[in-house]
Amino acid sequence: MTVWVYTDTSRQIGDKDRLKVFATEEAADAWLAENDPEGVAFEYGVTGPPARPPEAAN
What we know:
With 58 residues, the chain is of the alpha+beta class. Helices cover 19% and strands 24% of the residues.
């Protein structure tokens, strides 16, 4: 499984809006098109098993 990560380097480290993490490339592309057309998101692998949906945790 992978996620797509965008870093806003104009923000300070620790700023809650410095990083954006997207579940799909399409979600990243849509956000970038609207919010930072010249920005890019990088694909990163996720370590560990996929998270269970909240309803499966019961």
